[in-house]
Amino acid sequence: MVQDGRAAALWGAGIGWPGFTRMAESEHGARFIAPDTDEIAKVLARHSFLKALTVPANSYPKQTEPIASVGSWSYILVRDSLPDDVAYRLAKTLHGIEADFCKKLAQACETTAVNTVAAAPDSSLIHPGVLRYFREIGVAK
């Protein structure tokens, strides 16, 4: 829609996000707009669940410089009633295939056990079954 003029901008998330990639590959390319240093500080002060992040150079076609911004780590959302043992097995399985998954999908490199624990504003926001697994492997207390 941006390319044909029906929209002025595109909003998206995640390194390698397909919409951004398509724009960057297009004839006119993409112009990535991110907050400046002061704006990043204001956003982080107001929203503790967000973190400073850098989109590495060459994450998109023709994007030769890193882009400082803010964002959140990837989330896997589940219902409150998801049994602890199911969440435990899900976390263990994802952790077990993390390296292979990361090779196939750049965004998967962001959803690691260490990143999950570091990015959570409060460990109570991590499902108890997942937290039990993270404690077993030594990435959470």
Walk me through what this model shows.
With 141 residues, this protein is mainly alpha-helical. The protein folds into two domains: 18-71, no CATH class; 84-136, no CATH class. Helices cover 38% and strands 7% of the residues. The protein has helices at residues 18-25, 37-46, 84-96, 98-104, 113-119, 128-136, and strands spanning 51-55, 67-71. It has a two-stranded antiparallel sheet with strand order 1-2. Helix 3 (84-96) crosses helix 6. The protein is globular, with a radius of gyration of 18 Å. The N and C termini lie far apart (47 Å). The mean pLDDT is 86.
Secondary structure layout plus pairing:
Blueprint: H1 18-25, H2 37-46, E1 51-55, E2 67-71, H3 84-96, H4 98-104, H5 113-119, H6 128-136
Antiparallel strand pairs: 1-2
Helix pairs in contact: 3-6
Brief summary of the model shown:
Helices cover 38% and strands 7% of the residues.
Question: What series of H and E elements makes up the topology?
Answer: HHEEHHHH
Question: How many helices in DSSP terms?
Answer: 6
Category by helix and strand content: mainly alpha
Number of domains: 2
Assign a percent range to the helix content: 25-40%
Brief descriptors of the model:
2 domains; 6 helices; two-stranded antiparallel sheet; globular; mainly alpha; 141 residues
